Amino acid sequence: MTTLTHPTAPATAPADTSYVSAGPGLSFVALIRSEWIKLWSVRSTVWSLSLVVVVSLGMAAVMAWATTLQLASMGGATDLSVLPAADQAGIVLQAATFGIFFGQLIVAVLGVLVISGEYSTGMIKSTLTAVPRRLGALAAKGVVLFACTFVVGVVSTIGSFLVAAPMLAGQGLSVSLFDSAVILPLLGASLYLGLISVFALGIGTILRSAAGGIAAALGTLLLLPIVFSMIPAQWSTDVSPYLLSNAGSALFSTTTTMEPGQGVLVVLGWVVAVAGLAAVVLKKRDA
């Protein structure tokens, strides 16, 4: 006699839909949260962004101090209160934004490391597994990096103004932070730092190498304007204002010939071109 038994269906584990969604992978909000955690989980982020603030404040103090010494050496002609308001604002802005020229190099290095670090550790495979379409991961990195760099830029530039303005007030300069001729260039400098970080992120995505990416980003910002200035040709003079760092200075400097709006468009053109190429490379190449 045999005993009949009813076959039982194999137990199936409940599908986990809370973390990985079907098809495109994580939602963009989850990607933002993930990239935020990754960005702040490495010490280089804290060190780099802290250095931007310290360098900006320090350079503002040095520039204001140097300006005060220069005016003092001129004898009795040190009262600047007779200058037009725009000229007074220009002197204070020159000191308050001097640190941006150093800050752009720091955020460029950080932008490259954000993506090249994942390639060097192999974490990029986990990232792209969670985001099969890939471009969402790059976009989330760019959004998080831009937001953090912009906020740090605002803190740096406004802090630099608060350092420089009192030091120069002894020479008769009277400038309000909330004057549109002051606050807009300070915000423009912060915007420039944010865009430079995204530009460097694109460079790092294309080259996948920390050393190569940093060299390319700093070469574009520093060496390219020098090379163009040394070429004795009219076309070089015509092209020079459209280089990335030259156009970016129009966002906060009062000594450039380019209008701030034109500077924003040129810098955006650089960022969009590099980010677009990075998206194509990320989509086509294996991790």
Task: Outline the structure in words.
This protein has 11 helices and no strands. It is an all-alpha fold. It has one domain. The N and C termini lie far apart (61 Å).
In short:
The protein is mainly alpha-helical. It has helices at 28-40, 43-72, 85-96, 100-121, 123-130, 135-169, 180-207, 210-230, 234-239, 244-249, 260-284.
Strand content: under 5%
The helix tally amounts to: 11
Radius of gyration: 25 Å
Low-confidence runs of at least 5 consecutive residues: 1-22
Helix content: over 70%
Q: How many β-strands, per DSSP?
A: 0
- Straight-line distance between termini: 61 Å
What class would the helix/strand composition place it in?
Answer: mainly alpha
Shape: globular
- The overall average pLDDT, rounded, is 87
- Compute the number of structural domains: 1
Order of helices and strands: HHHHHHHHHHH
Largest β-sheet summary: none
Organism: Cryobacterium psychrophilum
Protein name: ABC transporter permease
